[in-house]
Amino acid sequence: MLVRMTTLAVLMATAMAGRADDWPQWMGPTRDNVWKEAGILEKFPEGGPKFVWRTKVAGSYSGPAVAEGKVFVMDYLTKDQVPEGNWKREELTGLERIFCLNEADGTEIWKHEYPVKYSVSYPNGPRCTPLVQGGKVYTLGAEGNLLCLDTKGKVVWQLDLKVTYKNGSPLWGYAAHPLIDGQKLITLAGGDGTHVVALDKDTGKEIWKAESSTGPDGVGYCPPTIINVNGVRQLILLKPRAFTAIDPETGKRLWTQPYTADNGSIIMSPIVSGEYLFGGGWNNKNMLVKLKTTDGHPDAETVWKDKKGLGISPVNVQPMLVDGTIYGFDQSGKLFAVEIPSGKRLWESEDVIGKSGNSETAFIVKNGDRYFYSTEKGELVIGKMSPKGYEAIDRATILKPTHKVFGRTVVWSMPAFANKKMFVRNDEELVCVDLAK
Fold first, then answer.
1. Confidence (pLDDT) at 10
2. Which of 220, 289, 306, 320 has its CA 20 to 30 A from that of 341?
């Protein structure tokens, strides 16, 4: 019996050490940019990591999702000339496409496409990563085309958010990744009384609607995020004009605090550290609120807002919280460590990306005690961070930058990390890279 139990324990430990995880949505299984797999390489082999496969795609900022042995990714196929990124709307015609690929070799299993006329700034393609759950994949295009397909490629339901909720597309397109909460698919829609809507994830029928946001910048770009503080679940909306919490079951407002993001540009998901909630966006705007209870009801008060030298103002990259410290890239392109609740910047570094001008981007994912940074230069960087500083470990070139912004060429797409591999794309190809130890 002892031998059997020992053998079983060894087998269980081996299975746990070799556990493989999917990456079924933006920022991973629990939307926190934590990659929990063990057995990941500590440094790159000579010549860089091994490529498992490559497959052609067109332009997009949308990252891949990996689930059920498949890779789901979106792009935008157009014959028009895609302009360099700027602050004005551009007219393009083309097809938004949803691909399902075989995770093992990158071959196409199925494809769904539909015509879309773009009238957004940075019209490079969809922004949102597909969301895969329960045999279905949910996608949101740059002009508000929300689709639910089964993982075999059949459309279950679809909705044009602009038409249904009578709101124009945001300046930089629909970019807030939808969220599944129980039976609900929660997404920003925009419009009068419909800033955010909850839909039945199986039918697309509206369950509730809440808040208002009108005009091209009113809806913003921050993904809906649910937190649990003092036993109360709150759906947090970092809106261009306020931080607001609502009841995720009913849409009823719980509290709000005024805030202003220039051009409606607040993109990051809120970060919660104990009783404090942080958010920030363009242009050097950020805010910390303290979550509390007033007369038995959830409430909040502003601790500090837009104070020079405090916190960070992220643009394209989601910061992350580790043991009470926020690590993230500011609109300056510098990597900062920020103490919460003081907002004090503990250190700054330009080592990950280098100097290039404005809104430098590197997507951060934590694996064990190390961090992987997928940079706009097409590099994958391995490093460590602590309140004491940043430590570089290794870097390798993965992709060629293909998209022009601010006079430079970049890769602005969040990768997926699944089954000891990285899946990342530019505007020409999606690649799978082996990161096993």
1. 36
2. 220
What CA–CA distance (Å, rounded) separates 293 from 231?
A: 11
pLDDT digits (tens, 9 = 90+) for 36-88: 999 999 999 999 999 999 999 999 999 999 999 999 999 999 999 998 877 78
The label of the residue with tokens 């540009």 reads: 265
Q: How far is CA 98 from CA 62, 95, 154, 328, in A?
A: 10, 10, 11, 30
Strands (E), 201-241: 206-210, 225-229, 232-239
User: What is the amino acid identity at position 93?
Assistant: T
Residue 14 reports pLDDT greater than 50: no
Would you say 417 and 20 are in contact if contact means Cβ atoms under 8 Å apart?
no
Residue type, 320: M
Q: How far is CA 170 from the centre of its chain?
A: 17
How many beta carbons lie within 10 A of that of residue 270, not counting itself?
21
Bridge partners of 314, per DSSP, are none
Q: For 93-108, what is the mean pLDDT?
A: 98
SS3 label, residue 361: coil
Distance CA 178, CA 195 (A): 13
Contacts (Cβ under 8 Å, ≥6 apart) of 46:
none
Which string of DSSP letters, residue by residue, matches 328-346? EE-TTS-EEEEETTT-BEE
The partner residues of 220 in beta bridges, in order of sequence, read: none
CB of 359 within 8 A of CB of 368? no
* DSSP states of 28-73: TTTTS-B---S-B-SSPPTT-PPEEEEEE--B-SPPPEEETTEEEE
Tokens of 140: 């949101």
pLDDT tens-digit map of 372-420: 999 999 999 999 999 999 999 999 999 999 999 888 999 999 999 999 9
Q: What is the chain's Cα-based Rg?
A: 21
Q: Tell me the backbone φ, ψ of residue 320, rounded to 5 degrees.
A: -140, 150
Looking up tokens 């022009």 gives 404
The model's pTM is 0.94
3-class state of residue 93 by DSSP: strand
What residues form DSSP beta bridges with 425?
430
H/E run at residue 9: helix 2-17
Coil, helix or strand at residue 262: helix
Contacts of the segment 82-88: beta carbons below 8 A, 24+ positions apart: 82/123, 82/124, 83/123, 84/404, 84/405, 84/407, 85/121, 85/122, 85/124, 85/403, 85/404, 85/405, 85/406, 86/121, 86/122, 87/121, 87/171, 87/263, 88/121
Instruction: Give pLDDT, residue 213.
Output: 85
